[in-house]
Amino acid sequence: MYTDSIYFMKSTYALITGASSGIGFQIAHQLAQKGFGIILTARREDRLRELSLELAEKYNVKTDFIPSDLAEPNAPHDIYSFCKEKNYDVEVLVNNAGYGIESQFHKTSMEVEEKFIRVLGTSVIALCKAFIPDMLEKKSGKIMIISSVASFTPPSSIQVLYGPIKTFMNRFSDALNVNYKYRGISSTAVCPGYVVTEFHTASGVQDQMDAVPAFMKLDAKNVATEAVEATLNSKSYCIPSKRYKFLVFLIKYAPWLINLLSNTLSGGRYEKR
Question: What does the mean pLDDT of the chain come to?
Fold first, then answer.
């Protein structure tokens, strides 16, 4: 079982992508509360600066930030170089950045699709590839990959590539565990359902999300709490909330029922109204 004291004795850091809002914002608070130094990255520099100061003052931990757009191919390298130049010992790598595409698949340019895949998929691989050698050297490291319950559900009519990319992320996380868990590095795929954040508003699909039943909506702080505990305890998967755990159970053992509700049950993040 994970104990906070292990990390309080180290000058270790947690790197969080997509940290300026939503799940990433709450994960930053959770990890700072446990004594980790915090490195924040996202596109909005003003929010990163504000959060960095807030965490440092509230939890008395070291914080830093680097504005970065993971849609850019060099972003993962720049983030890793930033950490190396400042001698930050990254113990926890949180791959949280994400967004959605408003337009229908056949109307979306390939350039837009490639950026989408880069943020949700390729950048995760690149960051893991950059930081794992350092984790191997010290025989210790935790990786969190924010996936989605959409990785288990039937395809959605809202965002064609979202679910398939998240399914791939689950398999990638599994592969990391097969290759590195016995060497002290674990990966946790966190698969939330609908979470109250800015995700869907920013992605232009808020209208579709407004029809989600209230009981299916999750609080970002609660999701972050379960995600952090699962990651620090080296769990392979985290499905926040009992109702979504039950949903995944149904998907496995009563898929015919889920097929009737597929467009309602594809997970994501959205802004409360």
Answer: 88
